[in-house]
Structures are given as C-alpha cells and as structure tokens.
Amino acid sequence: DVQLQASGGGLVQPGGSLRLSCAASGFTFDGYTIGWFRQAPGKEREGVAVSSRSGGASYLADSVKGRFTISRDNVKKTVYLQMNSLKPEDTAVYYCASRLGGPVWRRELYTNWGQGTLVTVSS
C-alpha cells in the first residue's frame, strides 16, 4: 500500500534553514506527483511546493518563492523541501502528499498523505 513519511522538522531561529524529507513506499514513485502542504493553527492547509512526476518541473507558492526549493530523487524515492531564510510565519505542520496525476495546487486532489512534521521558527 501507499505510505509517505515526512521528517526533518524542528525548532529554528528566524533566518535559519531546514531540510524536510518525504520518504515514499508501496507505489511506483516516479508515476506520482508529490506536493508539500502546511497548516498553522487556526488556518487552512495550504500548498507550499509541488514536484512533477519526473522531477523536471517544480512549483512554489508565492509566499516561499526565492526561499524554498523542492527536489526529488526517484531512485531513493524521496522528495525534499529545502527551506532557507525561514520566517516566523513559516511555522506550521508540514505534510507531504501524492497523487496519480500531474501537478496541481488543490489539496483535495491529493489522495495519499503523510503524518506531517512540525516546523517552528522562533527566537
């Protein structure tokens, strides 16, 4: 069966960096689009970054463009989210998700979700 596991979260100071990982198993990894989403307390879950099935295209939300980078290794079956210049407003639980289709932003179109990892940006 399909499983996704997000990891790499933690506490970091403003301006710092973290790299999140999403390890996949149970499916043909390179046939799936992988997205990163985040949810802060009291807010809707929002898309952060999306990687195409081949890894040849990536998409970033305006709020993180220029600071975050998404990449994937289809051999290791892992997607990464490199987060630089972190801000307090980046604090959230970050989730990775997959879908058997092309890259989209709507969370409702992703069928498989990991548990999430908490990122806290604070002094």
Short description:
The model has no long low-confidence stretch (mean pLDDT 94). The strands form two sheets. Strands 2, 4, 5, 6, 9, 10 and 11 form a seven-stranded mixed beta sheet that branches.
Report the radius of gyration as a whole number of Å: 13 Å
Query: How far do the termini sit from each other?
Result: 41 Å
Oligomer: single chain
The shape, in one word, is globular
Per DSSP, the total helix count is 0
How many strands? Answer: 11
Average pLDDT score: 94
Biggest sheet record: 7 strands, mixed
Which residue ranges are poorly predicted, with pLDDT under 50 across at least 5 consecutive positions?
none
Strand content: over 45%
Q: Give the fraction of residues assigned to helices.
A: under 10%
Order of helices and strands: EEEEEEEEEEE
Structural class: mainly beta
